[in-house]
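User: Okay, second chain of the day. Same drill as before: sequence in, structure tokens out.
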Amino acid sequence: MLPEEVRRRLRYAARPPAPDLMASACAHSLVTPLNLHLLHELVQRLGRLGIEGDIVECGVYRGGSAAVLGSAMLGLGDERPRKLWLFDSFAGMPAAGEQDGAFSHTLKGTYVGSEQQTRQLLAQAGVPPDRVQIVTGLYADTFPTVEIPRIALLHVDCDFYEPVKLTLEKFYPAVAPGGFVVLNDYGIFKGARTATDEFFEVNGLDIEPVAIDPTASFFQRPGDGYSGLPVAGHFPGYPGAVA
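Assistant: Same drill. Structure tokens below.
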């Protein structure tokens, strides 16, 4: 008989997202297709690695990446079902702050999201409503109202310094060792990168995020046998944060 670890890895062998799911996600997301594919793959890695915990996305827009995460989560077939937590104001970009780049200050009120569209995409992906918790409002108001004991994957897609800072401070302590943190705007938004780098420094974390594409990066939380070393090569020509 095969060892349990081998059987688990075979059970969660990498499977690409369904074409119709990807088409719908790309039409309702600002996340790049490569990043969407990796989000799907990282959820499958949670199964192969035996990482427990919920999936959290901060910055939902119209639900494209949420549908990818939810669909992949269902594929894990966990005995103890995970939950997908989604946080957004669905009111468009907030005002940028002093730590954000010049371009960020032109974006206030743009990219208005839709909770209704998000729920529709999740339903199309077959994600049961009881597996999803959508928390609507500004992070400063909503984060204090929730407690998520254990997080397996944290998708940080909130662009600016203050919301990225709030997200990492609130949820990183709950990320399981070996769990993944995806930083969607680390490559192009100055505020997102500054907030992340400061968080690493303040908390003494020796982490170098791995570039997925020119916009996004990710890392694996070290601890309990997980080194936190990169699990993918750096994107050539990685530009650094500018917006």
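The two ends are 54 Å apart (CA to CA).

User: Thanks, on to the next one.
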